[in-house]
Design goal:
The chain is mostly helical. The chain contains 20 helices and no strands. Helix 16 crosses helix 17, helix 16 crosses helix 19 and helix 17 packs antiparallel against helix 19.
Length: 387
């Protein structure tokens, strides 16, 4: 187990270190002449390699027992890689697992280049880390956030899940990048990027609805919107079973309800609050201070709070809990934005230490002790076993 922890810790540390150095170069850029900027480009390329390569390598070259869905995705790769686009459009949904076109494209490219499933994993993880990095870069430029902290939160909360829910994680990372267009109120670009993400997983259609949260920046519509949400909340609780059955009738969602049936006897306990309370209380406490810096930040905070209803609904149907992963990704930007918005340096340091400590405890509890996503013990593919 110590070996496995050291592999993940070293990987995360190298990537975060590379991102911190890349951020320092970004901050120096405006103060340097053109000649020095040219030299920085080569240095930045080195830091980018450090950011992207380590997490991609362990995702690609892990043994088949690392991750719950490794063998399932291997079967998917072998099933769909030989189909041309015309053939795939003809047979999709019958003998090809009904996998979305984005992941088919990855498998097809790898097959045509003579690669194996390892390289499909390589490309998939690269897309996840790349879009997370580019999203954090925009937030740093706009809100002066600590990108290294954002990536650290991603590794602690989401990376392990991404080794299993590969298609959804690619789409979610693309949606994280799309946040810039939501916050800048560029609906066309936001929709186009989300539609691109939809090529990797059908559930991403939910992200298209998130654009509606911009209504909270409209003073006239804010109160009516809150009223509608409160009413909808109680109606959903009262008629939840019927609502889930209605949703399950949509053709493109039907297979998810077949795999993850409606649990009409679901019971939820205090476990839901073990993550919610420690993670979200500081956001709520410092909400007003963050709003003074930018009204747009409150939109980001609202998006992260969607974690709570999705987690609640997940007790009734496991599939519906997937969108809470989007809210977890939004936390990777919301927390650094919150810290950047706080005026007191003391509070900044305390919040930073708090979130570093809490997310580490969450990682150890969730991924190491409970072994969620079965990412422990880690082993390289050439070793074949766990250490």
């Amino acid at each position: 187990m110590l070996y496995s922890i050291s592999v993940y810790a070293t990987t995360f540390a190298i990537s975060i270190f590379g991102l911190s150095r890349y951020q320092k170069n970004m901050d120096r850029k405006n103060m340097e002449n053109i000649h020095i900027r040219g030299e920085r480009r080569l240095e930045n390329l080195f830091w980018i390699v450090l950011i992207l390569l380590p997490p991609v390598l362990i995702a690609a070259f892990r043994a088949s027992n690392v991750g719950t869905d490794y063998l399932s995705y291997q079967r998917i790769f072998n099933a769909i890689k030989r189909y041309s686009l015309k053939e795939y459009m003809q047979y999709k949904g019958t003998i090809t697992f009904n996998i979305e076109y984005g992941y088919w494209c990855i498998c097809r490219i790898v097959y045509r280049l003579g690669g194996s499933f390892i390289w499909a994993n390589f490309i998939s993880e690269f897309l996840i880390i790349f879009f997370m990095w580019r999203g954090l870069v925009w937030f740093h430029k706009k809100y002066d956030i600590n990108m290294a902290l954002g990536m650290y939160l991603f590794y602690m909360i989401q990376y392990g899940y991404g080794l299993n829910g590969i298609r959804f994680s690619i789409g979610a990372a693309i949606c994280f990048y799309a946040l810039r267009f939501l916050l800048e109120k560029k609906p066309l670009l936001y929709i186009l990027v989300c539609l691109f993400a939809l090529l990797f997983h059908n559930i991403i259609f939910i992200a298209l609805l998130f654009y509606a949260v911009n209504i909270f920046n409209n003073k006239t519509m804010k109160k009516p919107a809150l009223t509608v949400i409160v009413i909808a909340f109680f109606l959903i609780i009262i008629e939840l079973d019927e609502l889930l059955k209605l949703i399950s009738r949509f053709t493109f969602l039907e297979r998810y309800f077949n795999n993850y049936g409606i649990n009409e006897s679901a019971a939820y306990g205090w476990g839901i609050w073990l993550f919610v309370i420690p993670m979200f209380i500081p956001l709520i406490i410092f909400w007003r201070k963050a709003r003074k810096k930018s009204e747009k930040i409150q939109i980001l905070f609202i998006l992260t709070l969607l974690y709570i209803p999705f987690r609640f609904l997940g007790y009734y149907n496991q599939w519906i809990s997937r969108p809470l992963r989007l809210a977890e990704l939004y936390l990777c930007a919301a927390v650094p934005c919150l810290i950047a918005a706080v005026d007191s340096n003391k509070n900044k340091k305390l919040l930073k230490l708090y979130y570093i400590g809490f997310s580490l405890v969450w990682y150890l509890f969730n991924y190491v002790i409970l072994n969620a996503s079965k990412t422990y013990p880690f082993a390289w593919i050439s070793l074949g076993g766990g250490n």
